[in-house]
Amino acid sequence: MKTSIQIGTIMGIPIRLHITFLLILPVFAWMFATTDQQSGGFSDVGSVPLRYLLGMAASVLLFACVLLHELGHSYVAGRHGSKINNITLFLFGGVSSMEEIPKDPKTELKMAIAGPTVSLLIGSALISINEIFNQESLFQGSPYLRLVWLIGFLNLVLCLFNMIPAFPMDGGRVLRAWLAGRMPYIKATQTAAGIGKMFAIFMGIFGFFYNILLTLIAFFIYIGASEEEKSTEVNVILEGVKVRDIMSKEVQTVTPETSVEELVDMMFKYKHMGYPVVDGSHAKGMVTFTDVQKIPREERKNVKVSQIMSKNLITAREDDDAVTILKLLTTNSIGRIVVINDEKMIGIVSRTDVLHAVQLLE
To answer: 124 falls in which pLDDT band (50, 70, 90)?
Structure first.
């Protein structure tokens, strides 16, 4: 099941909506529509349809500003050579997925503060507009002007919250960039992640007594800090490791004419869940246990591997970096990649091979 849908592209970057975003949008609209005027809501608006229309407008504009926040990060990242795979809006905000976070502290610092700077500029501009027009009697008490103030205020909150020095928020990256100029990169990451975890713990305890939503946010912060720490450790450990160092050269293969029944027997014998499909020495595709499951047991004798294999073969070369292979495996949600040299298969590297290398090097 796909958990996100693409709604378009901006600056060549795919923009996606996570399913949690689609679920939370009407909740936010209801909250804005039923919150009192003192808190920036619209519960005092006489027309009920207008009240909820303003609530929905506030929700959409808020997440549009979150998108601009992420585009700020992406623009600076692109200027410094980092490729942005996509931007996804989800339950608690947005995430820019980039191939690699630069380890140069100055570059990471610029990228980290770009998003909060965008939010600060938007918030300051909207608050200023509200102040200017609110001086005119014609606009005083206008719910539309209140909408302008609300979005401005929320952008300022977004800026301040993101600058808290705790991973995975922007402030955590600013902290790591500062620390990385004074200690090894992995140590800087561990320190910033540790602060992020401590912040999440205190926030979770506070939320348990005062607002359970804060506890839920704290949970995501803790998980994000842990993932950032582990990801950085793996990248540092695998520096200098090439595919040739970890790939398996003796590979069990099948031919396009192999029956699915024979393939199942091989899976029982060799205990591998995926096999390259080769014709001579040329790889034609990949067949996995997932492909086998789609074929009813009684039909497997008559179905050939060529009919169910994946022909969109992702390959690597023996001099590719192991870190690059791990990203390919993760990004494409696959378990193994064929290693090619002069259009001939010379080996295979799996997710297990990479993880074993990490364990040994640790």
So the answer is: very high
> What are the tokens at 312?
């969109």
Which pLDDT band, with edges at 50, 70 and 90, does 1 fall under?
A: very low
CB 294 within 8 A of CB 308: yes
- Summarised one tens digit per residue, pLDDT across range 79-107 is 887 777 778 777 656 666 666 666 778 88
Amino acid at position 100, single letter: E
Catalytically annotated residues: 70
Counting other chains too, the contacts that 158-163 makes at CB distance below 8 Å and 24 or more residues apart are 158/65, 158/66, 158/69, 158/93, 158/116, 158/119, 158/123, 159/116, 159/117, 159/119, 159/120, 159/123, 162/69, 162/115, 162/116, 162/119, 163/116
N residues, the chain:
362
Q: How far apart are CA 59 and CA 56, in angstroms?
A: 5
CATH superfamily of 243-361: CBS-domain (3.10.580.10)
Sorted by where each begins, the domain ranges of the chain are: 4-237, 243-361
Q: Rounded CA gap, 192 and 53, in Å?
A: 41
> What is the C-alpha separation between 147 and 57, in angstroms, rounded?
8
pLDDT digits over 130-177, tens only?
888 877 765 666 888 888 998 999 999 989 988 888 877 888 889 988
